[in-house]
């Protein structure tokens, strides 16, 4: 009951910060974020802050998760999304509440294993995981209607651009660590449109 009450408070804070899409707010209000962090940090799980998950990685701030998810939805509903950087699995769980299939790639094996176990345990059977260098995407299963990248790179990886379907949207932090812009890249046929959604701070996107 305490967890449910804390999720409701978190949703209220996100609304105050400008999140308006009811699908996003419902997902944030449903996913048990405390399950995706270390037990010692569970009392901080519903604060609007990033938290460490080991291996130099973090679970993203809920507001950023909500903004990135909302940015994917603004172009319309979608049935399938590729996430690059599974991390704790929290963003994948939020997406799984919204769409039919989530494909997610994680480079760090212990995080990949932990997220897979937890997502199965929580009943997110529409999430499929792969351990791989995320900058390669998942070409065997592309192209994708939506792609979301949860780590920052100096540029948008060419492989991810190639795997974006016509009419698709890719959301990614771009820039040096600590000074990144959240970029939304939209593809309409052979035309590409890039826009900035504001400043963010993500861990680096590491390539093999």
Distance between the termini: 43 Å
Q: Helical region count? A: 6
Structural class comes to alpha/beta
* Helical residues, percent: 25-40%
Oligomer: single chain
- SS strand fraction: 25-35%
Record field, number of beta strands: 9
Shape: globular
H/E element sequence = HHEEHEHEHEEHEEE
Low-pLDDT runs: none
Widest β-sheet, arrangement of strands? 5-4-3-6-7-8-9
Report the C-alpha radius of gyration, rounded. 16 Å
Description of the molecule:
With 208 residues, this protein is an alpha/beta fold. It is built from 6 helices and 9 strands, in the order H-H-E-E-H-E-H-E-H-E-E-H-E-E-E. It has a 7-stranded mixed β-sheet with strand order 5-4-3-6-7-8-9. Strands 1-2 form a two-stranded antiparallel sheet. Helix 5 links the parallel strand 4 and strand 5. 42% of the residues are buried. The mean pLDDT is 93.
Short description:
The chain has 208 residues and is α/β, with parallel strands linked by helices. Helices cover 29% and strands 28% of the residues.
Secondary structure elements and pairings:
Layout: H1 2-16, H2 22-30, E1 51-54, E2 57-59, H3 62-73, E3 80-84, H4 90-96, E4 101-106, H5 109-121, E5 127-131, E6 144-149, H6 158-162, E7 164-174, E8 180-188, E9 191-200
Descriptive labels:
single chain; 208 residues; alpha/beta; 7-stranded mixed β-sheet; two-stranded antiparallel sheet; 29% helix; 28% strand
